[in-house]
Amino acid sequence: MSEMRIIMEGWRGYLTEDVIRKPLFEDYGYISGVLGIRLPLDESGATSPLTEELKQKILEEQMLFEGFWDDAVQTVKTAAGELGGQFVDAVDGIRRFGDAGWLIVQQLYRVATNPKLSGEFIGAAWKIGLNKKINKIREVLQQLSQSLPEWGMPTFGDMAIKALEIFNNVISSVDKMEKSWKKVIAIAGLLIGVKWLWDKVFESFIEPFGDWMKKIKDEIGDSTSAVMENFKTWLQDTVQEKLINFIQSQFSGIVDKLISVAGGIKPWWDAAAAAVGSVDLVIQALSAPSGRFQRMTGG
Questions:
Q1: What phi and psi, each to the nearest 5 degrees, are found at residue 74?
Q2: Under 8 Å between Cβ of 197 and 251
Q3: pLDDT tens-digit profile of 111-124?
Q4: Burial per residue of 4-35, b for 16 or more beta-carbon CB atoms within 10 angstroms, e otherwise
Q5: DSSP class of 51
Q6: What does the pLDDT look like over 211-251, one tens digit per residue?
Q7: Backbone region of residue 159 per phi and psi (left: phi > 0; alpha: psi in -120 to 50; beta: other values)
Q8: Distance CA 169, CA 13 (A)
Q9: Residue 114 and residue 34: Cα distance in Å, rounded?
Protein backbone atom coordinates (compact mmCIF):
# COMPACT_ATOMS: atom_id res chain seq x y z
CA MET A 1 0.00 0.00 0.00
CA SER A 2 1.42 3.40 -0.98
CA GLU A 3 2.29 5.99 1.66
CA MET A 4 -0.44 8.33 0.37
CA ARG A 5 -3.02 5.57 0.53
CA ILE A 6 -2.03 4.71 4.09
CA ILE A 7 -2.43 8.37 5.06
CA MET A 8 -5.80 8.57 3.32
CA GLU A 9 -6.99 5.43 5.12
CA GLY A 10 -5.99 7.06 8.40
CA TRP A 11 -8.05 10.13 7.56
CA ARG A 12 -11.02 7.96 6.63
CA GLY A 13 -10.71 6.39 10.05
CA TYR A 14 -11.15 9.80 11.61
CA LEU A 15 -14.09 10.45 9.34
CA THR A 16 -15.95 7.35 10.53
CA GLU A 17 -15.68 8.71 14.07
CA ASP A 18 -17.23 11.99 12.89
CA VAL A 19 -14.27 14.02 14.18
CA ILE A 20 -13.35 15.92 11.02
CA ARG A 21 -16.30 15.72 8.69
CA LYS A 22 -18.44 18.55 10.09
CA PRO A 23 -15.74 21.11 10.98
CA LEU A 24 -13.80 20.54 7.76
CA PHE A 25 -16.27 19.62 5.02
CA GLU A 26 -18.91 22.08 6.17
CA ASP A 27 -16.55 24.97 6.84
CA TYR A 28 -16.70 26.45 3.35
CA GLY A 29 -14.94 29.63 4.43
CA TYR A 30 -11.95 27.61 5.62
CA ILE A 31 -11.90 25.40 2.53
CA SER A 32 -11.87 28.35 0.15
CA GLY A 33 -10.14 31.02 2.26
CA VAL A 34 -7.43 28.95 3.93
CA LEU A 35 -6.95 25.91 1.70
CA GLY A 36 -7.60 27.96 -1.46
CA ILE A 37 -9.98 25.44 -3.04
CA ARG A 38 -12.72 26.85 -5.25
CA LEU A 39 -16.05 25.29 -4.35
CA PRO A 40 -18.74 24.53 -6.96
CA LEU A 41 -21.84 26.72 -6.84
CA ASP A 42 -25.38 25.93 -7.94
CA GLU A 43 -27.62 28.27 -9.94
CA SER A 44 -28.67 30.15 -6.82
CA GLY A 45 -25.04 30.81 -5.83
CA ALA A 46 -25.06 28.36 -2.93
CA THR A 47 -22.29 25.78 -2.52
CA SER A 48 -23.11 22.53 -4.26
CA PRO A 49 -22.73 19.23 -2.37
CA LEU A 50 -19.10 18.13 -2.25
CA THR A 51 -18.20 15.18 -4.42
CA GLU A 52 -16.00 12.37 -3.09
CA GLU A 53 -13.24 13.53 -5.44
CA LEU A 54 -13.43 17.07 -4.06
CA LYS A 55 -13.48 15.74 -0.48
CA GLN A 56 -10.29 13.82 -1.19
CA LYS A 57 -8.67 16.96 -2.61
CA ILE A 58 -9.71 18.89 0.52
CA LEU A 59 -8.17 16.22 2.72
CA GLU A 60 -4.95 16.21 0.71
CA GLU A 61 -4.70 20.00 0.97
CA GLN A 62 -5.41 19.84 4.69
CA MET A 63 -2.65 17.26 5.14
CA LEU A 64 -0.26 19.46 3.16
CA PHE A 65 -1.21 22.40 5.38
CA GLU A 66 -0.70 20.47 8.61
CA GLY A 67 2.53 18.93 7.35
CA PHE A 68 3.97 22.34 6.49
CA TRP A 69 3.32 23.73 9.98
CA ASP A 70 4.32 20.57 11.82
CA ASP A 71 7.52 22.12 13.26
CA ALA A 72 5.54 24.98 14.82
CA VAL A 73 2.06 23.60 15.49
CA GLN A 74 0.83 20.39 17.04
CA THR A 75 -2.50 18.93 15.95
CA VAL A 76 -4.62 18.19 19.00
CA LYS A 77 -8.22 17.31 19.80
CA THR A 78 -10.23 20.15 21.30
CA ALA A 79 -12.65 19.78 24.18
CA ALA A 80 -15.43 19.38 21.61
CA GLY A 81 -13.63 16.44 20.05
CA GLU A 82 -12.56 18.35 16.95
CA LEU A 83 -9.01 18.64 15.65
CA GLY A 84 -7.27 21.95 16.21
CA GLY A 85 -3.80 23.52 16.11
CA GLN A 86 -1.70 24.38 19.15
CA PHE A 87 1.72 26.02 19.07
CA VAL A 88 4.64 23.95 20.26
CA ASP A 89 6.19 24.93 23.57
CA ALA A 90 7.68 28.45 23.39
CA VAL A 91 11.11 27.20 24.44
CA ASP A 92 11.06 24.68 21.60
CA GLY A 93 9.80 27.30 19.12
CA ILE A 94 12.54 29.75 20.10
CA ARG A 95 15.15 27.00 19.86
CA ARG A 96 14.07 26.27 16.29
CA PHE A 97 13.54 29.81 15.00
CA GLY A 98 15.14 32.23 17.47
CA ASP A 99 13.26 34.84 19.52
CA ALA A 100 12.33 37.17 16.67
CA GLY A 101 11.82 34.30 14.23
CA TRP A 102 9.40 32.52 16.54
CA LEU A 103 7.25 35.64 16.83
CA ILE A 104 7.15 35.95 13.03
CA VAL A 105 6.30 32.26 12.53
CA GLN A 106 3.43 32.53 15.01
CA GLN A 107 2.14 35.60 13.21
CA LEU A 108 2.34 33.86 9.82
CA TYR A 109 0.38 30.90 11.18
CA ARG A 110 -2.24 33.20 12.71
CA VAL A 111 -2.69 34.86 9.32
CA ALA A 112 -2.58 31.63 7.33
CA THR A 113 -5.43 30.10 9.33
CA ASN A 114 -7.76 33.11 9.21
CA PRO A 115 -9.15 34.21 5.83
CA LYS A 116 -10.29 37.52 7.34
CA LEU A 117 -6.72 38.37 8.36
CA SER A 118 -4.82 37.11 5.33
CA GLY A 119 -6.02 39.95 3.10
CA GLU A 120 -4.98 42.54 5.68
CA PHE A 121 -1.55 40.95 6.06
CA ILE A 122 -1.03 40.79 2.30
CA GLY A 123 -2.09 44.45 2.03
CA ALA A 124 0.37 45.44 4.76
CA ALA A 125 3.13 43.49 3.00
CA TRP A 126 2.55 45.36 -0.27
CA LYS A 127 2.30 48.75 1.42
CA ILE A 128 5.28 48.42 3.77
CA GLY A 129 7.71 46.00 2.15
CA LEU A 130 6.99 45.71 -1.56
CA ASN A 131 5.36 48.58 -3.46
CA LYS A 132 8.07 51.23 -3.10
CA LYS A 133 10.97 48.90 -3.88
CA ILE A 134 9.19 47.10 -6.73
CA ASN A 135 8.15 50.36 -8.39
CA LYS A 136 11.68 51.78 -8.18
CA ILE A 137 13.25 48.60 -9.56
CA ARG A 138 10.78 48.62 -12.44
CA GLU A 139 11.45 52.29 -13.11
CA VAL A 140 15.21 51.71 -13.37
CA LEU A 141 14.85 48.61 -15.57
CA GLN A 142 12.38 50.39 -17.87
CA GLN A 143 14.72 53.35 -18.21
CA LEU A 144 17.63 51.07 -19.04
CA SER A 145 15.52 49.09 -21.53
CA GLN A 146 14.60 52.27 -23.39
CA SER A 147 17.88 54.17 -23.11
CA LEU A 148 20.63 51.59 -23.58
CA PRO A 149 19.97 51.19 -27.34
CA GLU A 150 20.02 54.99 -27.67
CA TRP A 151 23.38 55.03 -25.92
CA GLY A 152 24.79 52.58 -28.48
CA MET A 153 24.43 49.53 -26.22
CA PRO A 154 21.60 47.49 -27.82
CA THR A 155 22.81 44.15 -26.44
CA PHE A 156 22.62 45.46 -22.90
CA GLY A 157 19.24 46.93 -23.77
CA ASP A 158 17.96 43.48 -24.71
CA MET A 159 19.34 42.13 -21.42
CA ALA A 160 17.52 44.83 -19.48
CA ILE A 161 14.27 44.02 -21.31
CA LYS A 162 14.67 40.34 -20.41
CA ALA A 163 15.48 41.19 -16.79
CA LEU A 164 12.38 43.39 -16.57
CA GLU A 165 10.25 40.60 -18.04
CA ILE A 166 11.60 38.08 -15.51
CA PHE A 167 11.10 40.51 -12.65
CA ASN A 168 7.50 41.27 -13.66
CA ASN A 169 6.70 37.58 -14.12
CA VAL A 170 7.95 36.77 -10.62
CA ILE A 171 5.87 39.54 -9.06
CA SER A 172 2.81 38.61 -11.12
CA SER A 173 3.04 34.91 -10.26
CA VAL A 174 2.64 35.74 -6.57
CA ASP A 175 0.09 38.50 -7.02
CA LYS A 176 -2.25 36.28 -9.07
CA MET A 177 -2.34 33.43 -6.56
CA GLU A 178 -5.68 32.53 -4.99
CA LYS A 179 -5.97 33.89 -1.47
CA SER A 180 -4.96 31.03 0.81
CA TRP A 181 -2.33 30.02 3.35
CA LYS A 182 -0.03 29.26 0.40
CA LYS A 183 -0.30 32.88 -0.77
CA VAL A 184 0.61 34.08 2.74
CA ILE A 185 3.82 32.03 2.52
CA ALA A 186 4.42 33.20 -1.06
CA ILE A 187 4.07 36.86 -0.02
CA ALA A 188 6.53 36.24 2.82
CA GLY A 189 8.93 34.70 0.30
CA LEU A 190 8.49 37.65 -2.05
CA LEU A 191 9.19 40.08 0.80
CA ILE A 192 12.46 38.29 1.49
CA GLY A 193 13.44 38.11 -2.19
CA VAL A 194 12.72 41.78 -2.90
CA LYS A 195 14.52 42.87 0.27
CA TRP A 196 17.55 40.82 -0.77
CA LEU A 197 17.54 42.24 -4.32
CA TRP A 198 17.22 45.78 -3.01
CA ASP A 199 19.95 45.47 -0.38
CA LYS A 200 22.28 43.40 -2.55
CA VAL A 201 22.03 45.35 -5.80
CA PHE A 202 19.67 48.24 -6.25
CA GLU A 203 20.39 50.33 -3.19
CA SER A 204 24.04 50.60 -4.23
CA PHE A 205 23.16 51.05 -7.94
CA ILE A 206 20.45 53.68 -7.86
CA GLU A 207 22.43 56.55 -6.31
CA PRO A 208 25.47 56.39 -8.64
CA PHE A 209 23.15 55.78 -11.60
CA GLY A 210 21.26 58.95 -10.68
CA ASP A 211 24.53 60.85 -10.39
CA TRP A 212 25.61 59.65 -13.83
CA MET A 213 22.28 60.69 -15.34
CA LYS A 214 22.90 64.22 -14.08
CA LYS A 215 26.43 64.21 -15.52
CA ILE A 216 25.37 63.09 -18.99
CA LYS A 217 22.24 65.24 -19.21
CA ASP A 218 23.91 67.59 -21.69
CA GLU A 219 25.97 64.84 -23.38
CA ILE A 220 23.29 62.31 -24.34
CA GLY A 221 23.17 63.45 -27.94
CA ASP A 222 26.93 62.91 -28.34
CA SER A 223 27.62 59.22 -27.79
CA THR A 224 31.35 59.74 -28.48
CA SER A 225 31.99 62.37 -25.79
CA ALA A 226 34.43 61.52 -23.02
CA VAL A 227 31.69 61.72 -20.38
CA MET A 228 29.45 59.33 -22.33
CA GLU A 229 32.33 56.93 -22.92
CA ASN A 230 33.10 56.88 -19.19
CA PHE A 231 29.43 56.39 -18.44
CA LYS A 232 29.14 53.46 -20.85
CA THR A 233 32.24 51.88 -19.34
CA TRP A 234 30.65 52.15 -15.90
CA LEU A 235 27.43 50.63 -17.23
CA GLN A 236 29.26 47.71 -18.84
CA ASP A 237 31.05 46.95 -15.60
CA THR A 238 27.93 47.34 -13.49
CA VAL A 239 24.69 46.57 -15.31
CA GLN A 240 25.32 43.00 -16.39
CA GLU A 241 27.32 41.79 -13.41
CA LYS A 242 25.54 43.57 -10.55
CA LEU A 243 22.06 44.11 -11.90
CA ILE A 244 20.82 42.00 -14.76
CA ASN A 245 22.57 38.77 -13.76
CA PHE A 246 21.23 39.00 -10.22
CA ILE A 247 17.66 39.24 -11.51
CA GLN A 248 18.00 36.60 -14.21
CA SER A 249 19.98 33.99 -12.32
CA GLN A 250 19.34 34.55 -8.61
CA PHE A 251 16.28 36.64 -7.76
CA SER A 252 13.79 34.45 -9.60
CA GLY A 253 15.41 31.33 -8.14
CA ILE A 254 15.21 32.66 -4.59
CA VAL A 255 11.54 33.61 -4.89
CA ASP A 256 10.63 30.34 -6.64
CA LYS A 257 12.19 28.47 -3.73
CA LEU A 258 10.44 30.57 -1.10
CA ILE A 259 6.95 30.43 -2.58
CA SER A 260 7.11 26.64 -2.46
CA VAL A 261 5.34 24.82 0.38
CA ALA A 262 6.72 21.40 -0.52
CA GLY A 263 8.69 21.18 2.73
CA GLY A 264 7.76 22.52 6.15
CA ILE A 265 8.01 25.83 7.94
CA LYS A 266 11.43 25.01 9.46
CA PRO A 267 12.98 23.87 6.13
CA TRP A 268 11.37 26.93 4.50
CA TRP A 269 12.85 29.21 7.17
CA ASP A 270 16.30 27.62 6.84
CA ALA A 271 16.13 27.79 3.03
CA ALA A 272 15.26 31.49 3.20
CA ALA A 273 18.24 32.24 5.44
CA ALA A 274 20.56 30.20 3.21
CA ALA A 275 19.26 31.79 -0.01
CA VAL A 276 19.78 35.39 1.11
CA GLY A 277 22.87 34.80 3.23
CA SER A 278 21.56 35.40 6.76
CA VAL A 279 18.57 34.92 9.02
CA ASP A 280 18.88 38.61 9.94
CA LEU A 281 17.76 39.65 6.46
CA VAL A 282 14.80 37.26 6.66
CA ILE A 283 13.74 38.82 9.96
CA GLN A 284 14.25 42.35 8.65
CA ALA A 285 12.16 41.60 5.56
CA LEU A 286 9.25 40.20 7.56
CA SER A 287 9.34 42.29 10.73
CA ALA A 288 8.06 45.61 9.36
CA PRO A 289 4.92 44.32 7.60
CA SER A 290 4.29 41.84 10.42
CA GLY A 291 4.58 44.63 12.97
CA ARG A 292 2.23 46.90 11.05
CA PHE A 293 -0.25 44.09 10.64
CA GLN A 294 -0.06 43.27 14.33
CA ARG A 295 -0.79 46.89 15.25
CA MET A 296 -3.69 46.99 12.78
CA THR A 297 -5.32 43.80 14.05
CA GLY A 298 -4.31 43.77 17.70
CA GLY A 299 -2.76 40.33 17.31
A1: -100, 140
A2: yes
A3: 999 988 998 899 99
A4: eeeebeebeeeeeeebbeeebbeeeebbbbbb
A5: P
A6: 888 888 776 666 668 888 888 888 888 877 777 778 887 89
A7: alpha
A8: 43
A9: 7
